[in-house]
């Protein structure tokens, strides 16, 4: 192969331009260009133009924080309910294993450390008043 066969003969190519512009394009082009040049941007438009990317990032950040918080609350709530159920089962099983005779013996001992003797009569009266316990109910019990 010779280099002459690879050369393109430019004289044989078509001379017309395949690209066209719309009719009357340059008639209104000058007016549009002058409007854009003479138009002054307001202060508010300039601030919006500058802050628009930052605002979009802020909204995106708030969205992700909300999604993370919501998923954490849902997971934590389910996990917390499982712990409460487990604790309730333990307490229930321990209550069933309490020997009443041992409990009464401990409470009846004079040197018992369980009974708090620092309770004042005023505290008892306030407790009874807060829980709407009638004196007749107390008399019936004892």
Kindly describe this structure.
With 142 residues, this protein is mainly alpha-helical. The protein has one domain (30-141). The chain contains six helices and no strands. The radius of gyration is 45 Å and the shape is elongated.
Task: Give a quick set of tags describing it.
single chain, 142 residues, mainly alpha, 6 helices
Class by SSE composition = mainly alpha
When the domains are counted, the total is 1
- The percentage of residues in β strands lies in under 5%
Q: What is the global morphology?
A: elongated
Number of helices: 6
Q: What number is the mean pLDDT?
A: 76
Give me the strand/helix succession. Answer: HHHHHH
Low-confidence runs (pLDDT<50, min 5 residues)?
none
Largest sheet: none
State the end-to-end distance.
125 Å
* Multimeric state: single chain
Any idea what the radius of gyration is? 45 Å
Q: Work out the number of β strands.
A: 0
Helicity, as a percent range:
55-70%
């Amino acid at each position: 192969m010779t280099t002459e066969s690879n050369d393109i003969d430019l004289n044989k190519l078509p001379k017309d331009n395949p690209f066209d512009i719309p009719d009357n394009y340059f008639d209104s082009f000058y007016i549009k260009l002058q409007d854009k040049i003479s138009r002054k941007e307001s202060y508010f438009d300039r601030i919006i133009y500058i802050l628009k990317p930052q605002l979009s990032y802020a909204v995106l950040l708030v969205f992700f924080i909300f999604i993370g918080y919501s998923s954490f609350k849902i997971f934590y709530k389910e996990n917390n309910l499982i712990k409460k159920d487990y604790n309730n089962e333990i307490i229930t099983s321990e209550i069933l294993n309490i020997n009443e005779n041992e409990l009464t013996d401990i409470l009846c001992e004079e040197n018992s450390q369980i009974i708090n003797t620092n309770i004042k009569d005023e505290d008892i009266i306030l407790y009874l008043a807060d829980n709407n316990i009638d004196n007749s109910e107390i008399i019936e019990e004892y």
